[in-house]
Amino acid sequence: MTDEHFMKQALKEAAIAFEEGEVPIGAVVVVNNKIIARGHNMTERLNDPTAHAEMIALTSAFSQIGAKYLPEATLYVTVEPCLMCAGALYWSKVTRIVWGADDEKNGHKRITKDESPFHQKATISKGVLKEECAQFMKDFFKQMR
After folding, report:
1. What residues does 47 pair with on adjacent strands?
2. What whole-number distance in Å separates Cα of residue 139 and Cα of residue 18?
3. From residue 133, how far is each of 51, 53, 71, 122 by CA, in Å?
4. What are the residues whose beta carbons fall under 8 Å from the beta carbon of 119, sequence distance 6 or more?
5. How much is the pLDDT for 111?
6. Which of 13, 22, 54, 80 is catalytic?
7. N or C: which end of the chain has fewer CB within 10 A?
8. How confident is the model at residue 143 (pLDDT cuts 50, 70, 90)?
């Protein structure tokens, strides 16, 4: 399985968020080439500013495997994680984080600059299906205007 395959699955989650009137960000957690958890933004539905796609997917993954750490996991998310989600990824010990579009306004890099907020053993890949991921965000905010 490829990064593109799993990012397409995250994009399916983003599409659900879009249809529900949520900021269209989706995430999947993968272990051994198998999706063990999915999530999309649910901040409006749950009236909870912490209900980001990454948080929903991580919580589901912890429940699925029955542990608080995910050292064998890769998280695919359509947009660069914010600082809150980066912190959750740090504590979860996710091995690999893959995102599509950068988030110049609210992404973790806005605050951390060149320092990585992720676990020291984590590897980062970005720009996977970048245009498709960014288009959801553009369409959503254009619709909001």
Report:
1. none
2. 9
3. 19, 14, 26, 22
4. 89, 90, 93, 94
5. 53
6. 54
7. C
8. confident
